[in-house]
UniProtKB/TrEMBL annotation:
Its main location: membrane. It comes from Hymenobacter amundsenii. Residues 16-136 form the RDD domain. This is Transporter. InterPro entries: Pra-immunoreactive, RDD. Pfam families: RDD. It is found in: Cell membrane. One of its GO terms (cellular component) is plasma membrane. It is a multi-pass membrane protein. The keyword Transmembrane applies.
Length: 254
C-alpha cells in the first residue's frame, strides 16, 4: 500500500514541462552570466582594443557560471525552472530521496549536448534523457508545487528583467563609446540638422547600431534620434577609426 501511495504521489513529469523548465533555467542563467559580464567589462567596453582582456573577463565569469548551471538542481532537486513548472529531480530507485550533489552535477553535464538530449527525451519511453540514465535519476511532478499565480508572475518577472537589463545595458554602453560621442558632436555642428530641428535639445533614449574594433581599427554605425525644438529627426551616422587614430565621420544621412 505504501508503494502505491508513493507512485501516486510522484507522477512522472511530462516532456513539455521538462523542456519548458530547461528553457526557463537557460534564460535565467544566461541573464545572470550576461549581467555579470557587462558589469565586469564596464560601460566603456566597446572602446576596448584588447580582445584578450575581453576574453579573459568572459572566461572568468563563464566558467563558474557553467559550474553553477550544472549544479542548478542541487537545492532539493529543484531549479528555478523546475519550481516554476512544478517538477523536481528524484532518485529513480527511491523517489522520496533527493540525488546527491555529484549525481545531479553529472546529470546536468549532458546539457552540453542538449540537441541529443532533446531527441533522447522525446523518444525514450521512460521520459529519460542520457543524463538521467547515467545518474539514475527521474523527473517527477512536485506534489507540493505552489499555486499557479506566483509561478507565472515569477516567469514573467524573469523575462522582463532579462530584456530590460540587456536593452538598457547595451544602450548605455553604446552611448558611452567614443564613437557615439564623436557622432553626436558631428550632429551638433551640422547646420542642416540644426536648421531642420530648430535647435537640438537632446537625443533619444536608446540609439541603435553597432561598434566594431579589431586591431585598433574600427567601424561604427548609429541610428540616432535627434530631439529638436521644432521637430525630431532620425539621423544615420557612419564612422571609421584608423589604428592609433580618432573616430572620423564618413557619412551622415537624415
Amino acid at each position: 500500500m505504501t508503494e502505491q501511495k508513493t507512485e501516486l504521489a510522484f507522477l512522472k513529469s511530462s516532456r513539455k514541462r521538462r523542456i519548458a523548465a530547461f528553457f526557463i533555467d537557460h534564460l535565467i542563467m544566461t541573464f545572470l552570466m550576461v549581467s555579470i559580464v557587462f558589469i565586469a567589462l564596464g560601460p566603456n567596453f566597446m572602446d576596448e582594443n584588447n580582445p584578450s582582456k575581453i576574453m579573459t573577463t568572459m572566461l572568468f565569469v563563464m566558467i563558474p557560471g557553467f559550474l553553477l548551471y550544472f549544479a542548478k538542481d542541487s537545492l532539493k532537486g529543484i531549479s528555478a525552472g523546475k519550481w516554476i513548472m512544478g517538477i523536481m529531480v528524484r532518485d529513480e530507485n527511491s523517489q522520496n530521496k533527493i540525488p546527491s550533489f555529484g549525481r545531479i552535477f553529472l546529470r546536468n553535464l549532458f546539457i552540453i549536448i542538449w540537441p541529443i538530449e532533446f531527441i533522447v527525451l522525446a523518444t525514450n519511453d521512460q521520459k529519460k534523457r542520457l543524463g538521467d540514465k547515467l545518474a539514475k535519476t527521474i523527473v517527477v511532478k512536485n506534489p507540493n508545487e505552489p499555486t499557479k499565480l506566483p509561478r507565472v508572475l515569477a516567469l514573467i518577472g524573469v523575462g522582463i528583467a532579462f530584456f530590460v537589463f540587456v536593452f538598457f545595458t547595451a544602450g548605455n554602453a553604446m552611448k558611452n563609446s567614443d564613437a557615439y560621442k564623436v557622432a553626436t558632436k558631428e550632429i551638433e555642428i551640422n547646420k542642416e540638422i540644426i536648421a531642420e530641428t530648430g535647435g537640438i535639445k537632446g537625443y533619444g533614449m536608446m540609439p541603435t547600431g553597432n561598434v566594431s574594433i579589431s586591431n585598433e581599427q574600427g567601424q561604427a554605425q548609429f541610428e540616432i534620434k535627434v530631439l529638436g525644438n521644432k521637430k525630431d529627426l532620425n539621423v544615420s551616422v557612419y564612422l571609421e577609426k584608423e589604428p592609433n587614430g580618432e573616430w572620423k565621420l564618413i557619412e551622415m544621412q537624415k
